[in-house]
């Protein structure tokens, strides 16, 4: 399954419908190179911005311009907060994105919440909910203001759903709020460690502070959107900062209640793939229900002489990920009954 696809397999064997860009974990900071928390992997804080510039240049120059770019979260690093540089770094990254000729959809990750409160993010340029599409006469598919999620249609019969993986979280939340108390209770019930970012000794290592989860309200909304897509024979791409499938992620990087999210997705026919970031190492797996889980390699741990982004090309019978640098090429065939007849 993880063998590198042949060039012939990636070529346009059927009609090219549209494409979109994907990139994850830029984590820019105006700092010298450092290391991850374990001290095992180098992080290129300044160079990550050059990687982003290179990705944007590439997307702008593609022969078939992508319809949009999905930014999978952690756009600036948490270190910015320590140096009072959060707003300055965010402005620099957003100015870089202005060079992109197409819209970008921003997902929120843990590093967004290390730098900003949820309220701040809601009123920032990282809130791209204004790009959402609404389904007429189906109010149940309208997301609540209580979480940051929405859906949009980049091409007829294809729907993209952006999820809020920190809807349940102790990060970026008003600590006097009942929801914060609820989330802290969930975290402490599963993680008795003094250091809540440590998975040491946990049977469910995803219950750490740098992760989060999906509220039942958000999962109910997702279920309604996928029900509509099933009925209307749409293909669905789901986007989240946190991965939800163990075989496509380090176990410590999964969403708290990843099983609940999978249960919703597996009860529908329409979902083709689930894109996430967070792991930095990347991951890929097709689950038993034919949904492809792609955890994108993180820009922040990508050496200056490499790259980490991709373009997904969409066809009537499959999607192909054309990776750059350490992002591998992937082929994601639709289930037979899911092929689009154009």
UniProtKB/TrEMBL annotation:
Keyword Repeat: no
Pfam families in UniProt: Metallophos
Top-level class of the enzyme under EC nomenclature: hydrolase
Gene Ontology MF terms in the entry: 2',3'-cyclic-nucleotide 2'-phosphodiesterase activity; ADP-ribose diphosphatase activity; CDP-glycerol diphosphatase activity; manganese ion binding
Catalytic reaction annotation: ADP-D-ribose + H2O = D-ribose 5-phosphate + AMP + 2 H(+); CDP-glycerol + H2O = sn-glycerol 3-phosphate + CMP + 2 H(+); CDP-choline + H2O = phosphocholine + CMP + 2 H(+)
Sorted UniProt keywords: Acetylation, Hydrolase, Metal-binding, Zinc
Required cofactor(s): Mg(2+)
Taxonomy, superkingdom: Eukaryota
Cited InterPro entries: Calcineurin-like_PHP, Metallo-depent_PP-like, MPP_ADPRM
Keyword DNA repair assigned: no
CDD domains in the record: MPP_Nbla03831
Enzyme Commission number, as recorded: 3.6.1.13, 3.6.1.16, 3.6.1.53
Domain Calcineurin-like phosphoesterase, first and last residues per copy: 20-280
Role summary: Hydrolyzes ADP-ribose, IDP-ribose, CDP-glycerol, CDP-choline and CDP-ethanolamine, but not other non-reducing ADP-sugars or CDP-glucose. May be involved in immune cell signaling as suggested by the second-messenger role of ADP-ribose, which activates TRPM2 as a mediator of oxidative/nitrosative stress.
UniProt similarity note: Belongs to the ADPRibase-Mn family.
Oligomer and partners: Monomer.
Name of the protein in question: Manganese-dependent ADP-ribose/CDP-alcohol diphosphatase
Gene symbol of the encoding locus: ADPRM
């Amino acid at each position: 399954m993880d063998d590198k696809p042949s060039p012939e397999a990636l070529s346009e064997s059927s009609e090219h419908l549209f494409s979109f860009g994907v990139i994850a974990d830029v984590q820019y900071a105006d700092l010298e190179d450092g290391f991850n928390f374990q001290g095992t992997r180098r992080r290129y804080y300044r160079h990550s911005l050059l990687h982003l510039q290179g990705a944007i240049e590439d997307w702008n120059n593609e022969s078939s311009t992508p319809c949009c770019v999905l930014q999978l979260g952690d756009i600036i690093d948490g270190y910015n907060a320590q140096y009072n540089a959060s707003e300055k770094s965010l402005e620099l990254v957003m100015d870089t994105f202005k060079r992109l000729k197409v819209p970008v959809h921003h997902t929120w990750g843990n590093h967004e919440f290390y730098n900003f409160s949820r309220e701040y993010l809601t009123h920032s340029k990282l809130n791209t909910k204004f790009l959402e599409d609404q389904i007429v006469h189906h109010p149940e598919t309208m997301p609540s203001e209580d979480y940051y999620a929405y859906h949009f249609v980049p091409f007829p019969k294809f729907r993209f759903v952006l999820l809020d993986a920190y809807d349940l979280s102790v990060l970026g939340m008003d600590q006097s709020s009942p929801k914060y108390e609820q989330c802290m209770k969930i975290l402490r019930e599963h993680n008795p460690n003094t250091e809540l970012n440590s998975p040491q000794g946990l049977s469910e290592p995803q219950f750490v502070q740098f992760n989060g989860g999906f509220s039942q309200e958000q999962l109910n909304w997702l279920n309604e959107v996928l029900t509509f897509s099933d009925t209307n024979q749409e293909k669905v791409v789901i986007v989240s900062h946190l991965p939800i499938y163990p075989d496509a992620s380090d176990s410590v990087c999964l969403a708290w209640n990843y099983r609940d999210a999978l249960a919703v997705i597996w009860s529908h026919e329409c979902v083709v793939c689930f894109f996430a970031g967070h792991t930095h190492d990347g991951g890929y797996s097709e689950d038993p229900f034919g949904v492809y889980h792609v955890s994108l390699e993180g820009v922040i741990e990508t050496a200056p002489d490499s790259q980490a982004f991709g373009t997904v090309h969409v066809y009537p019978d499959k999607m192909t990920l054309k990776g750059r640098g350490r992002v591998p090429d992937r082929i994601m065939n639709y289930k037979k009954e899911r092929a689009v007849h154009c």
